[in-house]
Design a protein that fits this description.
The complex is a heterodimer of chains A (166) and B (170).
Chain A (H helix, E strand, L loop, with lengths): L2 H12 L8 H10 L1 H19 L7 E5 L2 E5 L8 H5 L1 H45 L6 H11 L4 H14 L1
Antiparallel strand pairs in A: 1-2
Chain B lengths: L2 H22 L2 H21 L5 H19 L1 H14 L5 H19 L3 H11 L5 H8 L3 H28 L2
Helix pairs in contact in B: 1-2, 1-3, 2-3, 3-6, 5-8, 6-8, 7-8
The chains are: A mainly alpha (166), B mainly alpha (170).
Chain lengths: 166, 170
């Protein structure tokens, strides 16, 4: 390649559009021709210095009544990048854990409540089936409590019955 | 303002502002140019709407910014400093370098033909490919490359002695 053939490629090189096919010949010519190398470096420096000028701040349009006003952009809402970031995941995970803990606590309380109701009902049935004089309601409750020591409400119920008897 | 004019205003405001800001370096000067350019755009649309809105806006913006720079040359440095102080950016040497560079680039662009100036701006600042430039300006890719080649050569030749002087300074 001679200097005339290189000139069209100079624009491609300065514009970052030099094809891989042309690159070896272009570089080989620059290595051998001082004039073209100097021209290339001068043009490259000119383009780089032009690009070095700081980019302007972002401006946007907003409507004020029937007027369009130019100004700084409004604060951004949380976009997709926020939701894909680690902070968002941590936030979502903590909310999820809080919900799970709340649900577990609620379910546990409901279970204890329903268990005590079931136990009381069982005790009543046992007392009814035992017949009068054989076993009292509180004895039946006591048996149920012994079979299910986890029923704290049942224990309270027995104590209350005792107190009522006195 | 008619609907098409308002559309162009909304669509190209940031680009017009960007072209002006690159040459002027002052937010309020760039806004002045934006306003002036869109007033002209409105007038132009009333007569005959340009076929290539973006190309028309780029050409008028560059011309207007170069004119404004010539008129306000003595005020630009102090105004630019004020903008940077407000933004909390470094001043002194770096700012002077930036302003010197801006002056050099604006002077160099002013010395080009309109077509060279537009192609150079579209390539360097808008990041368009030669094919995109050719489509936007309505000429061939090789013509776009030739304009770019001549523009870069002219800017380089014009600024090389000055940059050489600056590099010699301690």
């Amino acid at each position: 390649m001679n200097c005339e053939e290189i000139e069209p490629l100079m624009a491609d090189a300065w514009g970052d559009e030099l094809s891989p096919q042309d690159l070896p010949a272009f570089e080989a010519h620059l290595a051998s021709c001082q004039r073209c190398r100097g021209e290339y470096e001068t043009g490259r420096a000119a383009v780089e210095r032009m690009r070095a000028l700081p980019s302007p701040r972002k401006v946007t349009l907003r409507r004020e009544g029937n007027r369009l006003v130019i100004g700084p952009p409004p604060p951004r809402r949380a976009g997709l990048s926020f939701w894909l970031s680690g902070a968002a995941f941590r936030y979502a995970a903590s909310v999820l854990i809080a919900f799970a803990a709340g649900y577990t606590l609620h379910a546990g309380l409901m279970f204890v409540e329903s268990s005590s109701e079931t136990a009381e009902r069982t005790a009543s049935i046992e007392a009814a089936h035992a017949g009068p004089g054989s076993v009292s309601l509180q004895d039946a409750l006591l048996r149920v409590h012994q079979r299910n020591p986890g029923y704290a409400d049942l224990a309270k119920c027995i104590i209350a019955l005792h107190q009522g008897k006195r | 303002m008619a609907r098409t004019e308002a559309d162009a205003f909304e669509r190209y405001t940031h680009e017009v502002y960007g072209w002006a800001y690159r040459l002027l370096g002052r937010h309020h000067d760039a806004l002045d140019v934006v306003q002036d350019v869109f007033v002209r755009w409105s007038e132009q649309c009333a007569q005959r709407p340009p076929r290539q809105a973006r190309g028309w806006l780029r050409r008028v913006t560059l011309n207007r910014a170069i004119d404004l720079r010539r008129h306000r040359r003595t005020q630009v440095t102090s105004g630019c400093e004020a903008d940077h102080v407000a933004a909390g950016q470094p001043l002194a040497g770096q700012l002077m370098d930036e302003e010197t560079l801006r002056c050099d680039v604006a002077d160099a662009l002013a010395g080009l033909t309109e077509a060279q100036r537009e192609v150079l701006t579209a390539k360097v600042y808008d990041g368009l490919t030669f094919a995109q430039i050719a489509a936007e300006f309505g000429f061939s890719v090789s013509t776009a490359k030739t304009h770019y080649l001549r523009a870069v050569q002219a800017v380089g030749d014009r600024l090389r002695p000055r940059w050489a002087d600056l590099e010699k300074q301690p």
